[in-house]
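Need residues for this backbone.
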């Protein structure tokens, strides 16, 4: 399954019987991560912020969900992302990449959080066929396990292009070109808060009675100030992703000239903190089942929060970038030539044509990725209009 949203006003409480039981090896792995978390909770006086819990659950070296263990992406994993459906998504993204590299007279592509490496391989192959390979394709990836997987995918699908690829541990000191990230921001650790009669409280995670549990604490000053501005009612619980905003600011700081193109699921702020979305957007994915309890299956399941795209736009523009476009997944991919790519496919080749039709449906249907998923472009020194947004730009909604 693709990542699914929470419905307004509803939670998706897990029925443990509906979740496939982890193997004994997975249980042992989870127990090691739980021990690591308990040590940190004890060292910090009895609780840690939810963002720190999410960070360790996903990225603790050798233990976190993205840092170890079995395959995450695609049918054998826990969820499907657009690059895993087939090459159509990458072929569409190749069009704006070509246009930016042509405008800059060269430059690099930097993909952050490259997952299995599928987007990198398919994008490079398409750019090669369009005659506009970037000077370098840089991959910024936190997880050593995923780096190995990415290298394996690239060796298998595009071995002759390996020389273009370089892995990075941190952002480069300066950058010219195209920064791409698909489903990166939703995987960054978010803070969780609740409005009470006493004001904004921050949700922490503690260990009690042999299990992780929630604890309310006075909110950090930065969170309190931001959330008070939203004037939310008592009982309202949601997330704020300060790390995602900080990441956008740090990319903006090094972006000499070029574009940051971010694709993810989420909403403008007014919709993110909609009066009916009273329990936030946290979702967990385990073997194609979705539920909303991040304290379960620690290290074995993905944890994610939707993106507040207004916050992302503000983080970029406050750091001197221009907001070049914001729209839905469907509108952006159509603006990148999805229909032309589809019409160039040979209907006589039934297998390939059907595969392509299925990709189009998943990528653009309002019930799949078409509407919940959005695309935002922030850039410096780039002429407008930016390809992909011409027909349907929703910047005014942010
Ligand atoms: C949900 S996965 C998406 C993977 C891939 N982009 C796709 O669409 O299939 C999130 C990815 O972001 C990576 N990641 C998370 N935080 C990161 C950061 N601060 N810098 C670079 N990569 C990060 C994770 O390790 C993982 O590869």
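Answer:
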């Amino acid at each position: 399954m693709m990542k699914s949203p929470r419905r307004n006003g509803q939670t998706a409480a897990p029925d443990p019987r509906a979740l496939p039981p982890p193997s004994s090896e997975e249980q042992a792995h989870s127990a090691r991560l739980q021990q690591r978390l308990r040590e940190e909770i004890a060292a910090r006086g009895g609780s840690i912020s939810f963002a720190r819990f999410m960070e360790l659950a996903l990225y603790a070296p050798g233990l976190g969900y993205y840092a170890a263990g079995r395959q995450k992406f695609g049918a054998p994993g826990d969820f499907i992302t657009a690059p895993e459906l087939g090459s159509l998504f990458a072929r569409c993204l190749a069009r704006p990449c070509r246009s930016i590299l042509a405008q800059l007279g060269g430059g690099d592509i930097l993909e952050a959080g490259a997952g299995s490496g599928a987007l990198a391989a398919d994008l490079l192959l398409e750019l090669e066929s369009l005659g506009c390979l970037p000077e370098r394709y840089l991959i910024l990836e936190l997880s050593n396990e995923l780096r190995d997987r990415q290298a394996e995918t690239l060796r298998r699908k595009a071995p002759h292009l390996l020389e273009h690829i370089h892995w990075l541990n941190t952002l480069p000191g300066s950058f010219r070109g195209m920064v791409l990230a698909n489903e990166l921001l939703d995987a960054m650790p978010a803070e969780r808060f609740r409005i009470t009669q006493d004001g904004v409280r921050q949700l922490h995670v503690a260990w009690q009675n042999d299990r992780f549990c929630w604890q309310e604490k006075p909110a950090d000053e930065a969170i309190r100030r931001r959330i008070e501005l939203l004037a939310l009612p008592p009982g309202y619980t949601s997330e704020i992703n300060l790390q995602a905003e900080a990441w956008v600011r740090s990319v903006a700081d090094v972006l000499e000239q070029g574009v940051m193109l971010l694709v993810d699921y989420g909403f403008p702020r007014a919709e993110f903190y909609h009066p009916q979305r009273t329990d936030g957007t946290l979702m967990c994915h385990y073997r194609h089942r979705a539920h909303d309890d991040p304290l379960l299956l620690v290290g074995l399941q993905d944890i994610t929060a939707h993106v507040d795209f207004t916050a992302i736009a503000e983080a970029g523009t406050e750091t001197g970038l221009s907001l070049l476009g914001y729209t839905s997944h469907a509108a952006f991919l159509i603006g990148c030539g999805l229909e032309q790519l589809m019409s160039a496919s040979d209907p006589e080749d039934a297998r390939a044509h059907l595969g392509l039709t299925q990709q189009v449906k998943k990528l653009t249907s309002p019930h799949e990725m078409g509407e919940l998923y959005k695309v935002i472009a922030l850039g410096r020194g780039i002429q407008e209009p930016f390809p992909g947004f011409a027909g349907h730009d929703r910047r005014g909604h942010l």
